[in-house]
Amino acid sequence: PPLTDAEWERAIRHGVRRDSTGLLVMPSEVFHAISDADMAPMIAYLKQLPPVDREVPPTKLRIIGRMVLGVGQLKTAADTSPRTPHVASVDTTPGVDYGRYLVGISGCAGCHGPSYSGGPGVGGAATPNLTPTGIGHYTEEDFKRAMRTGERPRGGGKLNEAMPWKFYGKMTDAELQSMWAFLKTVPPKQLGER
């Protein structure tokens, strides 16, 4: 049977399957903070997608993954999902507060760190410093262009392909402006300074 709205929300927000087992790979620590007003259309969109008639194979861990799981260091999404309340809605007026919300639900801290200062990232690739120390030379237009084209300003090269700029590039000008406004307010840090 199709998932209910509550089951969709439980999977997205808390990383828990219908059978109450934890999803292994689900960024619930990020999605947990999505407002109810944003979660409802997300679930409506997912429910209208055509069903796929196939069994999803179980997630398989390689030797390192099994070792990490064995010593209790690998957590499921349900283990890492915050237990804090989420908000019913957010004020979408462009600005710092809306930007803080968007940066939070976009998972930026997952790669750039909780202080957004970058450093060693997933798979060893360095992630850029998003604090004013790292992108202080960007203008708001430079930031928007980078998010829409994957190109750093002033001939600075391409953004790493792991950076989901194609997703962010679909955001409105007001959303990107808000993210930019928030990033300008985070404390300046050196690369990798957490």
The succession of helices and strands, N to C, reads: HHHHHHHEEHHHH
Number of extended strands: 2
Tally of DSSP helical segments: 11
Structural class: mainly alpha
Strand count, sense and barrel status of the largest sheet are: 2 strands, antiparallel
| Strands ordered across the widest β-sheet | 1-2
Overall mean confidence score, pLDDT: 87
First-last Cα distance: 45 Å
* Low-confidence regions: none
What is the CA-based Rg, rounded? 18 Å
Q: How much helical structure, as a percent, in the residues?
A: 40-55%
Q: What is the 3D form?
A: globular
The protein's oligomeric status is single chain
The proportion of strand residues reads under 5%
Features:
mainly alpha, 194 residues, single chain, 11 helices, globular, two-stranded antiparallel sheet
